[in-house]
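Forgive a beginner's question, but would it be possible to get a protein, spelled out as residues, together with the matching structure tokens, please?
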Amino acid sequence: MIDPQEVPEVLPNSIPVPSAIVSSASYIWFYFIKTFKLIPGAHYIIDYVKKSHQDDPYRTFVEALLMIYSIVYFLSKPKKKGAVDQPKLSEREIDNLIEEWQPEPIVMPDKRTEWRLAKIPVCEGSGPRNVVDITRDNGKEAYASVFNLCSFNFLQLTAHPSVMQVAKDTIKNYGVGSCGPAGFYGNEDVHYNLEYDLAAFFGTESSVLYGQDFCVSSSVIPAFTKRGDVIVADDKISLSSQNALQLSRSTVYYYKHNDMASLENLLHELDEAEKKEKLPAIPRKFIVTEGIFHRTGEIAPLPELVRLKNTYKYRLFVDETFSIGVLGRTGRGLAEYYNVSRASTIDITVGSLATAIGTTGGFVLGDSVMARHQRIGSNAYCFSASLPPYAVRTASAVLKLMDQDNSAVLKLQQLANNLHDWFQHDEQLNKIIEVTSHPDSSVLHFKLTDEERLARFNSTIESIFQESQYQQQHCISDHYVEAWEQEEKFLQQIVDVALEEGNVLISRDAVILKQETLPLAPNISICCNAAMDDVQLYEAFKVVKAAIVKVCA
């Protein structure tokens, strides 16, 4: 270690600072502190700095540097990354660039499924008619005087002169739309009148109107269920009911389609498991099914369902979108078809005003407690716009006609039976297709036989479903099942031949496979209505048969 006495005298003991700098710095610091103290709460900061400097002088230095850096950072003008001097363009050059600019699509088009959009028919004109003019593929294809077998307006009562006059008068008095949801000035007197008419017509305590039929199930079931509740459903329910079960947060079980032995075994197993678990609270329990199934056209066995629901203490939920106006001597649906009381057998009934009744919207039938709870707990009722008044009064007028005269219902049932009889007893067709719908269904559904599907596409319903489920579970956004697409294109050829060579319009069932949670097969549906006659329908049958035979040859 060097002795301080040995340090040369050349080095000064201190470095002199000019007095001007010292005095200037002192004045600046004095006035800065004086001004800073005028800020409310400044004395807390000064005390903090004093204590901090006393404990750790280096910390004061670091904090001062950070303070200076932050001030410089926030006051400095940010520089754009990669910024270069932009050339000055004239107005003409700017206009040319704008004209040349092509925005990227929000969703990239899928070339593999563009054919679906090109095959969607668009009817020209309005009103319920069996002979229509249609176009496809943005007007590239046009067909005149086509016999329409795709309409769900089964009774065609909205074409009655008295009903048309009611619609015109209502538009003059009420306008063309409602101003909001039911609870926010959307409902008018005609809405409540229709609810009373529906309850009286179907023999229930109350009813509730909805603006859209597709969202009724997905709003009603979640309104009555929670986590821990139990739902037992048929494995062929429609997409709207599937969505409702997903939104319910309940534990969902499926039984084999219309198999009451499968349902009873499942209910018995759940009952035994519940006894062993000794739950602190009894869960709500529902059986979910449909009157006429949207995908297959089969009819639910209501008496057996009622027996099982009473035995195991379940509530019965039935979607009657395609059975109301179709089943029963007066079109009152599944309960009348089996000659039982709706109020004592079905706890919640969901129906549509857009099928046999011919307007728009949906409704729910049940007791008054069920209806009252929906008015405060159902999302679609609370937040969706009400039906237009003219649609509501039109529905009331149709119900009145159905109550006075059931001739349209009886004729529809006779035509439906004839149509099914022609298809089911044709030996040539039975080798190729399988009719799945019940003879009393106004929509005939047919699909390829399992043997035909396996021979042509080397696939089964189970293999298609497994592939679809795999893609859903692995979150594959580009959902595509080759076997499904090939079979859909094959069925579309039948539709095209019937349209191009026979001027008859039929349709594939519109299915978005990635949304489906249950197995199903591609199929074609044919609708009949009360405004047709046997001769027209039989001629259409011959056209469809010829198309099937030609494509499958």
Summary: Residues 111-148+407-552 form a domain with the Aspartate Aminotransferase, domain 1 fold (CATH 3.90.1150.10).
